[in-house]
Amino acid sequence: MTIIGALDLAAVLVFALTGALAASRSQLDIVGFIFVACLTAVGGGTLRDLMLGRDPVFWVSAPHYILIAAGAAIVVFFTAHLLESRYRTLLWLDAFALPVAVSAGVGVALSVGALPVIVVTMGVVTGCFGGLMRDVVCNEVPLILKQGELYATAAFAGALSGWGAMWFGLAEGWALLVAGGVTFLLRAGSLALGWRLNAYKPRPPKTRP
Amino acid sequence: MTIIGALDLAAVLVFALTGALAASRSQLDIVGFIFVACLTAVGGGTLRDLMLGRDPVFWVSAPHYILIAAGAAIVVFFTAHLLESRYRTLLWLDAFALPVAVSAGVGVALSVGALPVIVVTMGVVTGCFGGLMRDVVCNEVPLILKQGELYATAAFAGALSGWGAMWFGLAEGWALLVAGGVTFLLRAGSLALGWRLNAYKPRPPKTRP
Amino acid sequence: MTIIGALDLAAVLVFALTGALAASRSQLDIVGFIFVACLTAVGGGTLRDLMLGRDPVFWVSAPHYILIAAGAAIVVFFTAHLLESRYRTLLWLDAFALPVAVSAGVGVALSVGALPVIVVTMGVVTGCFGGLMRDVVCNEVPLILKQGELYATAAFAGALSGWGAMWFGLAEGWALLVAGGVTFLLRAGSLALGWRLNAYKPRPPKTRP
Fold first, then answer.
1. What local confidence, expressed as pLDDT, does residue C46 receive?
2. Most buried of A113, A188, B134, B190 (most Cβ within 10 A)?
3. 3-state SS, one letter per residue, for C59-97
């Protein structure tokens, strides 16, 4: 198995767990769990492959991705009640899935010889869109839009670092590790320590005298 | 016309009617009716074709699909006021469109030689995503997420049965009939008789003594 | 640069501004601005290219589109507080972006030899979906669904006029100008003068005597 294949697999597994947890918060049945888990697991990578013109998308020619996502959903269906806080678990699993997916996106874009801007964009797309679809479909506030949290920012900084590491001469494997590491560091720092960027705040409107 | 072409056509027509009814509930104008009807009608099949790498997607090379969806929207615009309950009509039309689209998805996936997991997945995608887009855009609660209703479950069981029927040696036409029949039976049973799967229910939190 | 390239570029720039303004209304951070701006800027054209089977999509092989959208987002982040009404500015910028994107959609569809129905459809898709994604992700009421406003209608009428102009023998450049002009006229008339189509209004239910 290639590095990229392994990264896609890990991202699919962990994102599937977050999708199933979101399904549990919406109190769906077991097929609903599988549906949301698969959507979250392959959503970002599917968009990446469509935009890059990889044909067909990664999970169509290798069906174990779907089976793994479905298996993860079934496990969560029967064990989620053991968790103390399903939302906190979802947040932290998502924080592990995001960096892996960003690495996978950067790796795939490099492997098709994409230009630097596109490499970074594909890292962000692969990382962020699975979770975004999960949140839109389950009617949760998208994590990517939560004020003051580093989410798209973590993905963007990670993808940029990964590309930068390549540019400075690191081997691809190490560069993908840098991409994932920076993404995880920023996202986990945001979750655990409250790291944040300033959100846009309009000045209060001037009142007429 | 091939079997698959006929199934796509029937799914387009009936899903367009449901889209137009959703537009009537959002009180759109006639172009809004056409827009939502077309989105619902071709949404699921478009995703299927993109993922399978069919190029271009089915309705681009055969524009009568769009014309039929638009025509259905116009008919609904002028006749929806005659309906006693537009939502009940929407639900039942959707229950007819879902099985046809599941069959079309299974049929297309078989025709490109997809693996069994992908055949079932494409049945579910083709069946469910048109209605999901309709509901997200019109701000309705997605039918697929309604607790205790068989929707994704009906599509999944239908697609699986269709593939199973092929595996047991039935001709493709009959297998597609099985796929559609099982889907409709489960969905209609859920609507009319309240058939349901258990939804995930967390145990009540333990209270400290 | 071709006419179509210039239209895509203009649509990307102006839609990016509207995306950044929507991000400012959701009080995102600067990377959030860039994310929503890029999504809005390339969303419609990406869908168009995927459906027409253009491979890869337009901005993947020409990364300046993404850089321009990101630059526009950064400018808005630091200057939006100078605006008197960010929503009014968003509405009017969107009214400029819509016609340009409709023209780009019509132009691309003509350039790949699409059939008339598809030319018109691609005009509407390219024009409307970037803004629709922006509104769904930022949780605004989609402009396309606002009752009584000409939005999809303006795009539809514009795309149809553009195709009609070609059919009557106008050169492609002029036909695209007609498409954009008609779209802008209708959209601006709707915003400034309240032009509208009748929305669907169900008759009040008959009360039993």
1. 94
2. B134
3. CCCCCHHHHHHHHHHHHHHHHHHHCCCHHHHHHHHHHHH
Residue B57: is its pLDDT beyond 80?
yes
Residue pairs between chains A and B whose CB atoms are closer than 8 Å: 78
- Stretch (H or E) spanning A157: helix A152-167
Given an 8 Å threshold on Cβ–Cβ distance, is C30 in contact with A197?
yes
Chain C neighbors of B35, CB-CB under 8 A = 124, 128, 144, 152
In terms of Cα–Cα distance, which of C47, C37, C163 is closest to C97?
Answer: C37
User: Does the beta carbon of B117 lie under 8 angstroms from any beta carbon of chain A?
Assistant: yes
- Round to whole Å and give the CA distance between A180 and A154: 10
End-to-end CA separation in angstroms for chain C? 70
Of B29, B57, B139, the CB nearest to C51: B57
Residues 54-93 of chain A with CB under 8 A from chain C are: 55
Query: Shortest CB distance from A118 goes to which of C60, C77, C81?
Result: C60
pLDDT of residue B80: 87
* Least confidently predicted of A100-104, B179-183, C75-79, C203-207: C203-207
Contact C56 A55 (CB under 8 A): no
Which residue in A108, A129, A145, A196 has the most chain C C-beta atoms within 10 A of its own C-beta, making it the best mutation to test that interface? A145
The Cα–Cα gap between B113 and A4 comes to 25
What residues does each domain of chain C span?
Answer: 3-193
Contact A137, B142 (CB under 8 A): yes
Q: Is C52 an 8 Å CB contact of chain B? A: yes
Nearest C-alpha in B relative to A133: B136
Interface pTM, i.e. ipTM: 0.86
Q: What is the mean pLDDT of residues C28-32?
A: 89
Nearest to B117 among A31, A32, A67 (CB): A67
Q: What is the per-residue pLDDT for A140?
A: 81
pLDDT in single tens digits along all 209 residues of chain A: 688 888 889 999 999 999 999 999 888 889 989 999 999 999 999 999 999 988 789 999 888 999 999 999 999 999 988 888 888 898 899 999 999 999 999 999 999 989 999 999 999 999 999 999 898 888 788 888 787 788 999 999 999 999 999 989 889 899 999 999 999 999 999 999 988 887 777 655 555 55
What does the pLDDT read at residue C38? 95
Inter-chain touch A145–C32, beta carbons under 8 Å = yes
Q: Does C194 touch chain B (CB under 8 A)?
A: no
Q: Looking at the partner chain, which of A115, A153, A203 has a beta carbon nearest the beta carbon of C31? A: A153
Contacts of B22 in chain C (CB under 8 A): none
